[in-house]
Design brief:
The chain is an alpha/beta fold. Helix content is about 30%, strand content about 25%. It has eleven helices and 16 strands. Strands 3, 5, 6, 7, 8, 15 and 16 form a seven-stranded mixed sheet that branches. Helix 11 links the parallel strand 15 and strand 16. Helix 1 packs across helix 11, helix 4 packs across helix 5 and helix 4 crosses helix 10. It is globular, with a radius of gyration of 20 Å. It binds zinc ion. The site of zinc ion (ZN) has 8 residues, from helix 2.
């Protein structure tokens, strides 16, 4: 079978390997059909000095597939079922896991495709408890965007920022995989969406997927326009995943008592914070990473209801790297999906 393997920083190799043994008790064997790309793949591809991992490593952090075989004691799945997989090897027994806060697992075995072998291979075995059925009618390429992109946004907007109908949200980088998802999810609950993009072509696309106001941050300061659009009141929620220089601007456009939820920090992880502003304005800044199994089910339900990911490009497995380059060069609008 095929496995796309990172053998050194920025060096991928498609290798032939032996298929896995039949699944053990409590395990299922999944035949991968689609892998969706994330910024996390790019980080892994470039190499991160602090990431504890050993190369070679099978890449691919989120995917969908179908059950190829089930082990003893597995009754929830049968061969042919469409499924997605949780993206981290949680322990399943710690308090956080038992309470359904999977992304706070106290003994996580690593993120698949980043710390440990991931999903960009034809077949893999994994514990059935980490597998979630895909509702009928949801395509593989869409389902592949549920375990990380959709569920991360679901967790950020609704569990963490508690976005309500009628509120206004600023979504940074609306053309990215999670940005485009955030626009659609926020609109679907009746929020007003302001978003930022880096060029005019993306502005059109952002409007087409539901953004009420689009700011080209290369031409205009998002702080100025956002304050103008909200009659200087500011927004209720900022969906932040860029970090860097824009972070303080995001606090400036937040209403008193507003919530800023952040992940990713793709433009830089270090910022200066004015604590006086933080407490006087009673801001809530919430860090968010990953999602729970429940968030993945909620995401798939949204897809079944017609809220689908924005797909930028579909590429074959051999072009995985081309997809990463497209994310790195910020040409992308929506998700890139690798089809098997
Ligand atoms: Zn755990």
């Amino acid at each position: 079978m095929r496995a796309l393997t990172l053998i050194a920083d920025r060096k991928l190799e498609l290798v032939e390997t032996a298929p896995p043994p039949p699944p053990a008790a409590g395990e299922v064997q999944v035949r991968i059909k689609a892998v969706a790309l994330n910024h996390l793949d790019l980080w892994g591809f470039r190499g991160m000095a602090f990431a504890k991992r050993k190369l070679p490593l099978v890449v691919g952090v989120e995917a969908a597939g179908e059950i190829a075989a089930v082990g003893a004691d597995v009754s929830d799945f049968k061969a042919g079922d469409a499924v997605v997989m949780y993206g981290a090897l949680t322990c399943g027994v710690c308090r956080a896991c038992r309470e359904g806060r999977d992304n706070l697992c106290e003994d996580v075995g690593g993120i698949m495709g980043f710390h440990i072998d991931g999903f960009a291979r034809d077949l893999l075995n994994l514990p059935a408890r980490l597998v979630i059925p895909v509702p009928r009618g949801v395509a593989m390429r869409d389902a592949a965007c549920a375990p990380i992109a959709f569920s991360t946004v679901q967790h950020m907007l609704f569990d963490n920022a508690r976005l309500e109908p009628g509120e206004t949200v600023l979504v940074h980088a609306g053309g990215s995989g999670i940005g485009s998802t955030a626009i659609k999810m926020a609109k679907a609950v009746g929020a007003t969406v302001i978003t930022t993009v880096g060029d005019d072509a993306k502005a059109e696309k952002a409007k087409a997927i539901g953004a009420d106001h689009v700011i080209n941050y290369r031409k205009e300061r998002f702080e100025t326009i956002t304050r103008k659009l909200t009659n200087k009141k500011g927004v209720d929620v900022v969906f932040e995943h860029v970090g860097g220089e824009g972070f303080n601007g995001s606090l400036l456009v937040l209403k008193r008592g507003g919530r800023l939820v952040t992940c990713g920090s793709t433009a830089g992880p270090t910022v200066t914070l004015n604590l006086m502003q933080l407490f006087q304005q009673q801001y809530r800044i919430i860090g968010s990473f990953g999602a729970s199994m429940r968030n993945i089910r909620e995401s798939l339900d949204k897809m079944a209801g017609g809220l689908l990911p924005v797909i930028d490009t579909e590429v074959p497995l051999a072009d995985f790297e081309r997809g990463l380059v497209r994310i790195e060069s910020r040409q992308v609008f929506g998700k890139i999906v690798v089809l098997f």
